[in-house]
Design brief:
The protein is an alpha+beta fold. It contains six helices and 14 strands. The protein folds into two domains: about 140 residues, Hotdog Thioesterase (Thiol Ester Dehydrase, Chain A); about 160 residues, Thiol Ester Dehydrase, Chain A, CATH 3.10.129. The strands form two sheets. Strands 1, 2, 3, 4, 5, 6, 7, 10, 11, 12, 13 and 14 form a twelve-stranded antiparallel sheet that branches. Strands 8-9 form a two-stranded antiparallel sheet.
Length: about 300
């Protein structure tokens, strides 16, 4: 497996959350930076972006969080191309702690060239596909799905479907300008940020938890799958509906559907496998029986990404 370094930085205090580790949205942000660097290696840098008015954008992500990273941790991302054709690139990245050499997270992304004007798809050139052969890689075992399945996504649900299924409203707000990238489209990081910001409300509504008053226990995501279905813009009002897909003795799996309030159209779907976390010992803990029983009452049949 041959991987090229594409990003290097460190974990900033303002990138962490109430759990004391780097928040999931910043993993997405750093993987997006790695994708931009990979595009340059493939010959699609600033000049080509200007000529084609298009850039590589992730269509979906599968992310595994293997080791938490806390403020000050030095990290880098390396990656390559698993497959390439005129429609999309399949890319693999992994985030590594610079000191320990341990892989902190892995990312499998399908990416396509998208217009900066309206996000319509632009064909990937033969030259770009040929260059991708120089960065060919495989997906290692630690980067493959474990708690989630990479089956084809469901047909896009509508907001009315979420209401009929009784999904919980966990976020609603407008798309702010500083959440956006070229063309005033919502940045990839902010899709994940909306889901992350929703979790305290999700736990409050399903378990009565208030994370601001509990400094000893929390939760952590093990695995995420995100399907980006549309490109919200500045000023669009979005609403997130969430439900529990599955709960076991050790993990629980949430599904999240993000909608445009005005049109009712789905802009993204996601699934996440999470664990309970002892914030003092920094270790996973079993889900207490009473908590599991309570969570089971919120399982919604038919949820998927």
């Amino acid at each position: 497996m041959s991987l090229t370094e594409l990003y290097r930085s460190s974990v900033q205090t303002w990138e962490t959350d109430g759990m004391g580790h780097m928040n999931v949205q910043f993993y997405s942000e750093k993987a997006t930076s790695a994708l931009s660097a990979l595009a340059i290696h493939l010959g699609h840098g600033r000049d080509e972006i200007a000529r084609t008015n298009a850039r590589l954008v992730a269509e979906d992500h599968h992310i595994r969080f293997l080791r938490e990273q806390r403020p000050g941790a030095p990290i880098f991302i390396r990656g390559g191309v698993v497959d390439a054709d005129a429609h999309r690139l399949t890319c693999y990245f992994e985030m590594v702690n610079t000191v320990s050499g341990e892989v902190a997270a892995t990312f499998l992304a399908h990416a396509s060239l998208r217009s900066d004007e309206d996000r319509h798809q632009v064909p990937i050139s033969d030259a770009m596909i040929a260059r991708a052969q120089n960065f060919q890689t495989d997906v290692p075992k630690h980067g493959r799905p474990r708690g989630l399945e990479l089956t084809p996504p469901r047909a896009a649900p509508l907001l009315a479907d979420a209401d009929e299924m009784g999904l919980i409203t966990t976020f609603q707000g407008d798309v702010l300008r500083d959440w956006c990238v070229a063309g005033d489209f919502l940045a990839t990081r902010r899709f994940m940020g909306i889901v992350s910001d929703s979790i305290p409300n999700l736990l409050a509504l399903t378990r009565g938890d208030d994370r601001s008053k509990d400094s000893t226990t929390g939760g952590a995501a093990l695995e995420y799958r995100f399907v980006y279905r549309d490109a919200p813009k500045v000023g669009d009002v979005l609403t997130l509906r969430s439900g529990l897909k599955e709960v076991t003795d050790k993990t629980y799996t949430w599904a999240h559907w993000l909608f445009d309030v005005e049109t009712g159209a789905c802009v993204a779907t996601a699934e996440a496998v999470a664990i309970a976390l002892d914030l003092v010992a920094r270790k996973a803990i079993p889900i207490p029986p009473d908590m599991k029983a309570g969570l089971e009452t919120f399982i919604v049949p038919g949820l998927s990404v």
